[in-house]
């Protein structure tokens, strides 16, 4: 007797090395947050098998375990969108992976999932188009923590030196294509933001 089924639409944020028969994906959805699903790996390529990659957006039909366990298996999958250019730059791939891992390890509350989902899609598209990875990640880290409800503008931003406040405002408000901040400035701002998040919030960075 088959297990229960449900539909899910989400972004692939993580993949574990495949076992002999299954590939495990970490999927983020607006409806349910982070979900781990198992996709059967065929012994030979088939026309119906859709191999998923990191950062893919896909629509799933999932089937639960017959014994009522918590494992969900991919019964059907349809690829909605893929960013094939994202993997052409190591730095872009690293920034996308950092954000994906950040979202996957944090329990995003229901009221924040839609904004986080939109943030992920924007970041993947921007990086694939050649946006500066360091700037994109810093902006996304700030937006993620802000959307989680932390008062960064009121509590963290005023603690910065005047020069850093000016530099961060430029990073945050200028389009990625018009960024002029140096790599050292961006790295320093990211370090300061991460130290605040580690010390004053429950955001899991590592």
Q: How are the strands ordered across the major sheet? A: 1-2-3-5-4
Taken from the alpha-carbon principal axes, the silhouette is: elongated
Please give the count of helices: 6
**Total beta strand runs:** 5
Q: What percentage of amino acids are in beta strands? A: 15-25%
Give me the strand/helix succession: EEEEEHHHHHH
What is the structure about, briefly put?
With 206 residues, this protein is α+β, with helices and mostly antiparallel strands. The chain is 40% helix and 22% strand. A hairpin with a 3-residue loop joins strand 2 and strand 3 (33-40).
Based on the model shown, name its key terms.
206 residues, alpha+beta, five-stranded mixed β-barrel, 6 helices, 5 strands, elongated
What does it look like?
The protein is of the alpha+beta class and 206 residues long. It is 40% helix and 22% strand. It contains six helices and five strands; from the N terminus they run βββββαααααα. A five-stranded mixed β-barrel has the order 1-2-3-5-4. A hairpin with a 7-residue loop joins strand 4 (57-64) and strand 5 (72-81). Helix 1 packs parallel to helix 3 (133-147) and helix 2 (113-128) runs antiparallel to helix 3 (133-147). The termini are far apart.
């Amino acid at each position: 007797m088959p297990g229960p089924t449900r539909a899910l639409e989400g972004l692939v944020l993580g993949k574990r090395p495949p076992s002999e028969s299954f590939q495990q994906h970490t999927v983020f959805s607006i409806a349910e947050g982070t979900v781990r699903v198992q996709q059967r790996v065929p012994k030979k390529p088939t026309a119906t098998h859709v191999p998923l990659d990191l950062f893919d957006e896909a629509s799933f039909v999932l089937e639960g375990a017959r014994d009522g366990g918590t494992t969900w298996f991919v019964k059907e999958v349809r690829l909605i969108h893929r960013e094939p250019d994202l993997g052409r730059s190591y730095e872009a791939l690293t920034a996308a992976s950092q954000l994906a891992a950040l979202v996957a390890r944090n329990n995003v509350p229901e009221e924040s999932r839609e904004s986080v989902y939109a943030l992920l899609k924007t970041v993947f598209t921007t990086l694939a188009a050649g946006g500066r990875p360091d700037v994109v990640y810093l902006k996304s880290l700030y937006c993620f923590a802000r959307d989680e409800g932390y008062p960064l503008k009121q509590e963290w931003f005023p603690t910065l030196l005047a020069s850093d406040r000016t530099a961060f405002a430029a990073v945050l408000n200028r389009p990625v294509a018009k960024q002029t901040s140096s790599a050292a400035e961006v790295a320093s701002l990211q370090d300061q933001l991460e130290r605040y998040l580690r010390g004053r919030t429950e955001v899991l960075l590592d």
